[in-house]
Amino acid sequence: MTVIDVHAHVFPRISREESRVLAGAGEPWLRDGMMMSGEDDYRPVTPELWDAAARLAAMDRSGVRVQAVSSTPLLFGYAAAADRAADWCEMVNDRILAYCAQDPARLLPLCQVPLQDLELASTAVTKAKAAGHRGVHIGNHVGPRNLDDPDIVAFLAHCADEDMPVLVHPWDMLAADRMGRYMLPWLVGMGAETQLGILSLMLSGAFERLPSSLRLCFCHGGGSFAFLLGRADNAWRNRDIVRKDSPRPPSAYTDRFYVDSAVFDPRALRLLIDVMGADRVMLGTDFPFPLGEQEPGSTVRECPGLDDAERAAILGGNAKRFLGLDS
């Protein structure tokens, strides 16, 4: 069985001087095992995040054969001027390619784009694909613009045209002023942001307009989406302001996207599989962060009611299809 992790992050070596291209918009860089945001310490990190040899050794220990490697969301650069963000994304994408070149059969690079500008983002995807990137990594919103924003929907359609799968990660979480302690933005905000991204595509009718060839995956098990899908369907049936732009209830669109398995509880994963189907869930660990799955695949292996074929699909088979590895 080939085990493939679709949700694994990298923070390539970037100096303080190189970060200044973002001109005050976060300016992320690395200093002695610390992610920095401008002059501020952001989070301590381990060598796997920037050292490919350390990552590959960790993958060997855990039995993960392949990782789709995406940037740490701090690197997105969405708050910067679009032209500066385009230059920044090109540099980050080149660094990710160099990182993954240490073992291109096992480390599959995903690019990032200046999502704040449709034309620049689309150009970046086309260029990144030609350079060797295997997919695209985006945040679930750009400032106040959710995924149903017309330009973001047009960007997703461009990704479908380019045959580039898209991994959506929550970031810049809501209500930060009320969640300053206990990592609550990660524990509460990420789940809410992910559900917001999914429902914005469903209720706006965006899935009706997007090509069915679009391969889209939401991280963190789709956040709170699966648990609250019944509430969303109930609202669609009973309130015209909920269903006014969507001809079908939210549950009708679960075959239009994937989710990863990063829910950390076999009972939660069982519900997620019941909602999405075993063919729409892929292994995701959030490697190498401490809030990620410390024993990759353990939740899948402990999930009740799965047969061998379903378990194999979630641990790797579905990711082969999502990433286009079967071909």
UniProtKB/TrEMBL annotation:
Pathway: Secondary metabolite metabolism; quinolate metabolism. Residues 4-325 form the Amidohydrolase-related domain. Its EC number is 4.1.1.45. InterPro entries: ACMSD, Amidohydro-rel, Metal_Hydrolase. GO terms for cellular component: cytosol. Gene3D superfamilies: Metal-dependent hydrolases (3.20.20.140). It holds the Pfam family Amidohydro_2. Keywords: Decarboxylase, Lyase, Metal-binding, Zinc. It is an enzyme of class 4 (lyase). GO terms for molecular function: aminocarboxymuconate-semialdehyde decarboxylase activity; hydrolase activity; metal ion binding. One of its GO terms (biological process) is secondary metabolic process. SUPFAM superfamilies: Metallo-dependent hydrolases. The keyword Flavoprotein does not apply. Monomer. Belongs to the metallo-dependent hydrolases superfamily. ACMSD family. This is 2-amino-3-carboxymuconate-6-semialdehyde decarboxylase. The lineage of its organism: Bacteria, Bacillati, Actinomycetota, Actinomycetes, Streptosporangiales.
